[in-house]
Amino acid sequence: MFTFLHAADIHLDSPLRGLEGYADAPVEQIRQATRRAFDNLIELAIEEQVAFVLLAGDLYDGEWKDYHTGLFFIDRLSRLRKEKIMVFLASGNHDAASQITKALRLPDNVHLFSTKHPETIILEELGVAVHGQGYHTRALAENIARNYPLALPHYLNIGLLHTSLTGRQGHEPYAPCALDDLKARGYDYWALGHVHQREEVSRLPWIVFPGNIQGRHIQETGGKGATLVRVEEGRINAVEHHDLDVLRWSLCRVDLTDCATIDLAIDAVRQAMEGEQAGTEGRPLALRLQLVGKCPAHAVLHREAVALTEEFRALAVGLGEMWLEKVQFSTQRPVELNESIGAETPLADLLKAIDRLDLQPSILLELVPEIGVLQSKLPPELLHQGELIADSPEGRGPLAEEVKEVLIARLLGQEGSR
User: Fold this and answer.
1) pLDDT above 60 (res 172)
2) Which of 243, 263, 289 is the last residue of a domain?
3) Counting C-beta atoms within 10 Å of the first and last residue's C-beta, which end of the chain has fewer, N or C?
């Protein structure tokens, strides 16, 4: 009986993008998170006395700024060497031969698979054959899985590959292949990388994306870690996920449908925050709030968005070990506008004009002289740092709705209550 550990998408020292604009962001804590998670991976390997560790690509996050990233990586692999634990590496798109120009000699317990063709390493004492190939270039469009050799008889066969399979949302289609391509090799276990969300693609045979070991931004929520595989009498008898992350990201949806007042909405947010925190097992939490539902307090929520955001930040600080990354005010009016104000009134016509507003910068700037009255009603938060004329489809869509809702709340004079 023996065990092995499968991890991928380490992204050591991944740069922080987009956090510079948040004055209260725990930048250093996030900056060190990938290293600390990798330390947890090393500790798990030693505690479980694994026979070997499989790393399925994207060990780094592209070209190193200096040698410190590589030196850290080698130092941790050397700890495994002292424990007589082997390591098998297959490079991915972020650490392809064409991307990483600096090089350091790896410890002798480590095998880095060729980037030119699949290789097979046989571990006679364990009865294991490990097959793998790395990336020679970042944008690898070739189906290299078809070149992997057929399973060797009388061995536990493992394939190590960084791939998008037939495609996964949010991931480039690198080394694409079909599920049948993998199954046709006859292997017992495919150790995949590239997809940052854990996924057991198949159990017969086992085909697993372990996900990355540490979430790096709000698109990478939930527990992150590695997969521990237990082998008995030459067969896989257990596949277990182990959390390794040291800081967790969470998208927290709070349904405010039954909240008639702002105080009730704040209580609902507090309860939701406490629930999210309870699931982190003591880890620091980076949280995005998304307020949803047909809420009676909808108008005042949008009108007081800036003040409420700060109040929610204070809640996060009070709970401890929590950072509020953003609040999305996505509630809806409990009744349609034309039901509350009538369809044939000057105010209704004005609201229809608001509904047709196009927030593309050039068009908006042309319209400003004609909508001076409306512009004068915009609260300062919507004019802050040029947000009103954000020039990207991703930014304009939510912003357009936000502008519309604040304008409507102001024009209708909906004060709401606490």
Assistant:
1) yes
2) 243
3) N
Angle 168-219-305 from CA coordinates, rounded to 5°: 140
Residues 67 and 101 in one domain: yes
pLDDT surpassing 60 at residue 417: no
Instruction: Tell me which of 219, 243, 267 is where a domain ends.
Output: 243
pLDDT exceeds cutoff 80 at 115: yes
How confident is the prediction for the chain on average, in pLDDT?
84
Measured CA to CA, the distance from residue 179 to residue 146 in angstroms comes to 11
Q: What is the mean pLDDT of residues 102-115?
A: 88
What is residue 266's predicted lDDT score, i.e. its pLDDT? Answer: 96
Do the Cβ atoms of 97 and 59 come closer than 8 Å? no
Co-location of 97 and 213 in the same domain? yes
Q: What distance in Å separates the CA atoms of residue 161 and residue 190, rounded to the nearest whole number?
A: 8
* pLDDT surpasses 60 at 65: yes
What average pLDDT does the segment 234-256 reach? 97
| 3-class SS string, 171-232 | CCCCCCCCHHHHHCCCCCEEEEECCCCCEEEEECCEEEECCCCCCCCCCCCCCCEEEEEEEE
Query: Whole domain around residue 65: which residue ranges?
Result: 2-243
For 394, the token pair is: 């991703």
- In angstroms, the CA 281 to CA 277 distance is 8
Q: What is the pLDDT of residue 34?
A: 94
Residues 191 and 255 in one domain: no
* CATH label of the domain that carries residue 219: 3.60.21.10
Task: Point out which residues pair with 232 in neighbouring strands.
Answer: 235
Relative to beta strand 225-232, strand 189-193 is unpaired
